[in-house]
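Box 3.1 A note on notation
Throughout this textbook, protein chains are presented in two layers. The first layer is the amino acid sequence; the second is a token string describing backbone geometry. Keep the layers aligned when reading.
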Amino acid sequence: MNESNFELIKEIFSIIKQEINEPDDLLNITLNHQYLRSDEFKDEMINMIPKLKKKYKSHVLTCLHKNSLDKQKFPTINMIRQILKCNKYKLEPYIVTKGYDTVNKRKILERYYVIKYIE
């Protein structure tokens, strides 16, 4: 990963409130799905799109398209996933069961993502 790409990733993770000093710090970071979907995070990531367009091509990353906010279900998660993938990292999902809801007898699930290196 070159230095300019790493600076952009560092800036994204500062929005997530994760301190990254070197590329290996990315490994095994756990991200909460609900936080990545929050309006506060979404607004800050939308403001990053012009910087990202200078570095990455929009024909490669669908998160940089004009209509991505309307067309994609989770545009901010897609943005992080696609940028990490361009830099040989992947966002791997996993689910944690928090028990059962006593009213409707359904499982209470929390979704998380962990960052792994693509080999």
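The CA atoms of residues 70 and 90 lie 24 Å apart. The longest helix spans residues 39-55.
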